[in-house]
Amino acid sequence: MAQITPFPSAPAPWKLRSESYLLMVRLPKTLPDGIYDPLEASSEAFSDPARSGKHRGGLGAILIVRYTETPVGPYDELMIVPGSYQVPGHGSKRRIARIYVNQKETTYNGRTNWNIPKHLARFAFSAPATKTGSKPPESLHVAVFPPSESATESFFSVTLKPFRRFPAVPFSSRYLPVSISLTQPPIPSGEADYLVGTDTWAEYGIGSSTGRTRGAWVEVHPPADDQANREATKWWPTSVKPVAFGVWMENVTVDIGEATRWKP
Q1: What is the C-alpha separation between 190 and 195, in angstroms, rounded?
Q2: Which of 114, 120, 115, 112 is nearest to 192 (CA)?
Q3: pLDDT tens digits, one per residue of 107-118
Q4: What is the reported pLDDT for 174?
Q5: CA spacing 20 to 30 A to 223: which of 113, 132, 138, 143?
Q6: Which helix (H) or strand (E) holds 2?
Q7: For residues 194 and 108, is the Cβ–Cβ distance under 8 A?
Q8: Is residue 64 classed as helix, strand or coil in its secondary structure?
Q9: Looking at the record's lineage, which domain of life comes first (predicted)?
Q10: Whole domain around residue 88: which residue ranges?
Q11: Which of 77, 83, 85, 84 is closest to 103 using CA atoms?
């Protein structure tokens, strides 16, 4: 008998198209409060260094993605990859620590396919994604809110200003000297039916390419006051600040492979 799932299953591999904005951060070995959602933070398999791997620090990234084509339809995404971890028995690996999307279907499939700890949020962009052959806007404001429609204060807000005096250049991850992969520990299940859990590790490769990559200036906007900051820290590590220079990528093709799994 086929297994009944709360949402349509879209197994890996996935091929996607998107516009993406990469913001670079450098974190200390001691991770800041709020780096994990409370659900994952409550699970030793995800957040206990003895079981999930000790954070080693180093260069990390905040990534904002506007997916236009995916196996489960368009959606938006905000994630933080905080440098590398020393995974027991598997060496130095990178992982997504916290991630938001605005669609339940990708939340469900991201958790089941790759252990990606997706949660829901609302996204607001000041301009649409750049159309092929056109110039990007002079600036783009991005704000991410808690999923409730009544939430009016964003927990993450940034303005991006793409370089316009220099031509965009191609990029492909296949020419990088190292492979791009992420290794995710088991994740717990939540009360919502799309917050499914897993009991194995998952490692998977990611490939991307685009004909239009350019630099961008980055300005993060802090919460308006102390009360707003306290509320924002429930959703995001507000102390994490990216550097002033980022990367703007248009019409990106993304390939996410099937995960290799093993027991803790």
Answers
A1: 5
A2: 120
A3: 999 999 999 999
A4: 81
A5: 138
A6: none
A7: yes
A8: strand
A9: Eukaryota
A10: 14-234+242-262
A11: 77
Check if the beta carbon of residue 17 is closer than 8 Å to that of residue 253: yes
**What letter would DSSP give residue 113?**
H
CATH number of the domain bearing residue 91 = 2.40.400
Q: Is residue 9 part of a domain?
A: no
Report pLDDT digits (tens) over 234-255: 999 999 999 999 999 999 999 9
Residue 178 is predicted with a pLDDT of 56
Per-residue tokens: 214: 């350019």
Three-state secondary structure string covering 123-174: EEECCCCCCCCCCCCCCEEEEEECCCCCCCCCCEEEEEEECCCCCCEEEEHH
- Given a contact cutoff of 8 angstroms between Cβ atoms, the answer to whether 195 and 221 are in contact is no
What residues contact residue 122 under an 8 Å CB cut-off, 6+ apart?
102, 144, 145, 146, 147, 149, 151
Ranges of residues in the chain with a pLDDT under 50 are: 1-2
Q: How distant, in Å, are the alpha carbons of 69, 170, 245 from that of 253?
A: 9, 12, 23
Number of domains in the chain: 1
Quote the Cα angle for 190-194-200, to 5°. Answer: 65
Domain-embedded: residue 46 = yes
Q: 7 in a domain, yes or no? A: no
Is 220 within 8 Å of 241 (Cβ atoms)?
yes
- pLDDT tens profile 24-48: 998 889 999 899 999 999 999 999 9
Token pair of 49, please? Answer: 């260094």
Q: Residue 44's pLDDT is what? A: 93
Residue whose token pair is 């799309």: 194
Measured distance CA(83)–CA(86) in Å, rounded: 10
The confidence score (pLDDT) of residue 1 equals 40
Total-model pTM: 0.95
DSSP 175: G
Task: Decide if 2 is inside a domain.
Answer: no
pLDDT of res. 3 = 56
